Amino acid sequence: MQISKTTLQIVFAALALATSASVAAVTTQSFVLDSADELFEGELDGAAVHSDGSVRVGAATERTELENIPLAYSLAQRGGATFVGTGASGVVYRFDGKKAKVFANTGELLVASLAFGGDGALYAGTLPNGRIYRIDPKSGKMKRFSSPKGAKHVWALLYDKKRGRLIAGTGPEGKVFSIDPIGRPRVLHTAEASHVMALATDGKGAIYAGTSDDALVLRIKPNNQAEVVHDFPGNEVTAIDYHSGKLAVAANKFKTAPGAQFKPTAGPGGKPARPGTRPRPGSGELWRVDADGRAEMLVSRKDTHFTAVQWGADGAIYAAGGHEGRILRVEADGSYSIWVDVEERQVTALHLRAKSPTFVTGDSAAIYRVRPGKPHDAVWTSKALDTRFASKWGRLTWRGKGRFVLQTRSGNTQEPGETWSAWSKALKQPGVISSPPGRFIQVRANLPKDDTAVLRAVELFYLPQNQRARVSNIRGDRPPPERGQAPRRPPRPTILLNLSWKVDNPDRDPLRYRIAYREEGQPAWRHMFGEDTVLTDAKYTWNTDSIPDGYYVVRVEASDEESNPDALTLRSSATSEPIRIDNHPPRIEELKVRKGRVRGRVVDRLGPIARIQMSVDAGTWRDVFPTDSLLDAASERFDVSLGELSNGSHIVALRAFDAAGNQANREITVKTSR
Q: Quick check: 444 pLDDT over 80?
């Protein structure tokens, strides 16, 4: 059974690790592209990626650019001519199959819908003023035909042959209008939603309307009564198509409101701002509603919304995407393929059941004709595959049926550009990649003009350059108390010091650590443990019992020898700030009692003295200040009054603490008489 991997499969000579978190850099790795999602991420030119995880020959297209036009949005065909509604100046173009010419200029921001009427005239619905224009299909002469009351956006137009009327779907009041031959509008239905985005008819008098805000499809019966066909997920039904008793529905979820991208805000020089596509793609679902009302979700995509849908003459549903300029071909069983992939970001309108199948794009505007037969070249190109580090390439292998020609190119930028290598010589059989070493690589597959050719998987092997781990921030976790602020119960001094450090390990190699130390003023390093100890954790407990008090510098070395041969092993080291080691208590010296005063000195090798206390006859301990009132040195003298004592012998106890919490104790006997 074939297991589909996300993007990266680690290949080991003798052992396959189960998770990518244990990746070792200088081990052969590979990119395995064998699932639909991974293959979908590539670019297509005449090739099609299918939902079963295969690449095949797709549709042949021919592109005609509409120069300096940002957006083509609507489409209609009649008698071999194609008419395209555009933004940002509301121009309608006429395309004869070779050239596109300006045919009519509405002066509006966008021609959002086009439809031919029963009189043969072309009708154009516009925004932001909600006007419908009548255009002579031969001369291009134009006049305002209708301005439905309350409408600012005429999103959809269709001609109802059964009743000889024009139907308009509008916003922002969510109305469907019937418009008679002389342009008089009449409200057929007012939806609860703000916008009616799409229209379709069954040819028998029923009108289907898709709404925005609530993603409903409504059926408006010949008696003008409306009923809900289905309540779809999301917040907009963007497109619908009725054919042979069934509906195809594009239901999307957006964060922005319909029409927000077409608000006529002022641009540079006071001109209307250029209309664009939605700033971010939404998510979309494609549904089929059968004649008996059964609604089935066929395709769900989180990475794109659907801008147009249409039944093909072959019974498949074609769905145009609002991200990466793709059209899906969806079969009756729900399997699908990326049928077309164009250079523009959005495919905005489809007319595929016509004699000359056509679609148009936005961002920027172009007209595409689908040519009969197969494309001369069918090419699938992977996305730029990232090895994270400069890498040496190994073999390129693939699985499939038919003859393929594969090529590679490499570079060190995420987006392929001029600094990348040229495409390599063609590989007709799996073999060694000839592209120069680099961090990124692409694979390109050329499919023969043959329906039987199927590419199912590509695997590319590489060896990443080993990366050096970096050690930093070495520290011990036994900080001294604040000077003069020892706790009521001073901490027990410990000979154990917990060392820790940070490690930047770019390629996540298993690491081994070695630790050495030296006294601050000495040049010679001493090893903290022998070679038989293999330390792999970024911490160590150091027993300092045999270490003289002082300040010590610790050095930690990181080595990736555990996962690399000697010739490729990399090491790095870092040293700590001086760390205080103080395991010995201070001394209480020169202790005397004279004339009712206790005098003496507390001495420590390192200092400073943190606290001095006195107790008489096992009474309460009270703090003793040094003669200069400051606890700031390794030697502190004290001279303190005993106070009023009764006659007899008394025991005066003193204790002192250094900054590490080490404790010294002395007692002296005092005899008093009166």
A: yes
Tokens standing for 448?
A: 């023969």
Tell me which DSSP letter residue 37 carries. Answer: H
Q: Convert the pLDDT of each residue in 449-478 to its tens digit.
A: 777 889 999 999 999 999 899 999 999 876
Residue type at 109? Answer: L
Do the beta carbons of residue 330 and residue 299 sit within 8 Å?
yes
pLDDT at 279: 53
Using the predicted structure, report yes or no on whether residue 604 has a pLDDT greater than 80. yes
CA distance 122 to 597: 115
**Domain 8-41+379-464's class?**
mainly beta
Phi, psi of 260, deg, nearest 5: -60, -30
DSSP β-bridge partners for residue 644: none
Segment 349-403, tens digit of pLDDT: 999 988 889 999 988 899 999 988 777 778 999 999 999 999 999 999 999 998 8
Closest CA to 278 of 300, 299, 304: 304
Whether residue 566 contacts residue 583, with contact meaning beta carbons closer than 8 Å, is answered with: no
Residues 544, 494 contacting (CB under 8 angstroms): no
Task: Tell me which CATH code domain 470-581 carries.
Answer: 2.60.40.10
- Across 365-511, the runs of DSSP E, i.e. the strands, are 366-371, 378-381, 385-401, 405-411, 431-432, 438-447, 454-464, 470-476, 496-504
Provide the pLDDT for residue 280. 67
Find the distance separating the first CA and the last CA of the chain, reported in whole Å.
105
With cut-offs at 50, 70 and 90, classify the pLDDT of residue 266. very low
Instruction: Count CB-CB contacts under 10 A for residue 299.
Output: 19
pLDDT confidence band for 260 (50 / 70 / 90): low
Dist CA 670 CA 551 (whole Å): 40
Rg for the chain (alpha carbons), in Å? 41
Asked if residues 427 and 443 have their Cβ atoms less than 8 Å apart, the reply is no
Tell which CATH classification among 3.40.50.450, 2.130.10.10, 2.60.120.10, 3.60.15.10 matches the domain 60-373.
2.130.10.10
CA trace torsion 256, 258, 259, 260 (10° rounding): -10
610 or 484, which is more confident: 610
- Domain boundaries, given as residue ranges, for the chain: 8-41+379-464, 60-373, 470-581, 587-672
In one letter, which amino acid is 219?
Answer: R
